[in-house]
Design a protein that fits this description.
By secondary structure, this protein is an alpha+beta fold. The chain contains one helix and eleven strands. The chain has a single domain, classed as Umud Fragment, subunit A (Ribbon), CATH 2.10.109.
């Protein structure tokens, strides 16, 4: 009886490990660009990309580094950021409860900005301190450069004492 239970527990454990390895990815948050949603050192869990929607948080490749930002503009949309930091999509104000302090921040692109097909406009939740689609070096993010959609944050390891 005990051997059967041990075998069942072992099979379940191995199944969970295989699922975790092939479906989920873990990322460590670096920097303050996603505060207050995520902080430096937080460990977040991502999964296969699939369909991208406005508000999704994604991990993508940028100059050989992984970066985590929130999707604001979808392919074919027009994104504008007003002087007070208000974001509009196709002329409609975007409600952003996750942003503590509205700010236009540094903008190198021409606004309003038309998001290319198969690409996404991303911003950090900390608009004052984020290297995102407002900067030419980042620009819009191609779908093929997206590694994962972040589904939730695990224990904030950077905060454990």
């Amino acid at each position: 009886m005990k051997q059967n239970r041990f075998m069942i527990v072992t099979v379940i454990f191995l199944f969970i490990v295989v699922i975790a390895v092939f479906i989920f990815r873990f990322y460590k948050v670096s920097g303050t660009s996603m505060e207050p949603t995520f902080s430096e050192g937080d460990i977040v869990l991502g999964m296969e990309v699939g369909k991208i929607s406005r508000g999704d948080i994604i991990c993508f490749n940028r100059d050989g580094q992984k970066s985590i930002k929130r999707v604001i503009g979808l392919p074919g949309e027009e994104v504008d950021i007003l002087e007070d930091g208000t974001v509009t999509i196709n002329g409609e104000v975007l409600e952003e409860e996750y942003v503590k302090t509205k700010a236009r921040g540094e903008v190198e692109i021409t606004l309003p900005y038309s998001v290319p097909q198969n690409s996404y406009f991303v911003l950090g939740d900390n608009r004052v301190d984020s290297l995102d689609s407002r900067i030419l070096e980042v620009g819009s993010i191609k779908y093929d450069d997206i590694n994962a959609k972040i589904i939730f944050s695990l224990i904030p390891f950077g905060k454990i004492k």
